């Protein structure tokens, strides 16, 4: 069994590429829920960065030491990712430290010619299987089993925690709910204002560029 190229814990925010009917690869954000371990622990242990290898759990061939590698993810709405999952049954889950790439994936229709993004520190080609579907607050959702069949670590870097980056990620979640029934627009705009302040104070140039792109794509300041 192929192991994930990084440690997964809780919900790991990723970028996924899926092949569309036009042959190009759609880029979207996807939250991946860590697979369970016996005893309730999540896959991987020890220190890890954005592309930290789960070395304590894998052998020389990349196989896990009895750890279930099947994670899960949920798509919301009739998105391109959902349609491509049904049609192709696979995709590439990628781990990128670039906040601009994440914003473009989360808040726009973005297609590329190659499935592996240049900004990916690590990636996994995954098989997907629909588990269940339903409706929540008027929005359709579908739960998927996500199983790695091939993976690679491209770049290993020391772990750094930048509040600006995480503010960008949280802001994309709030922005994606602006037009969704069941969420209050004023409250979401207040959250976005807060995250914008965090990004301005704690983020670097790339994080500020990402927030400017978020504003351009969603118009949340209007």
UniProtKB/TrEMBL annotation:
Residue span of region Disordered: 31-83
Domain DUF447: start-end pairs: 71-153, 162-215
Gene3D superfamilies listed in its UniProt record: Electron Transport, Fmn-binding Protein, Chain A, Hypothetical membrane protein ta0354_69_121
Domain of life: Archaea
A Pfam family it matches: DUF447_N
UniProt protein name: DUF447 family protein
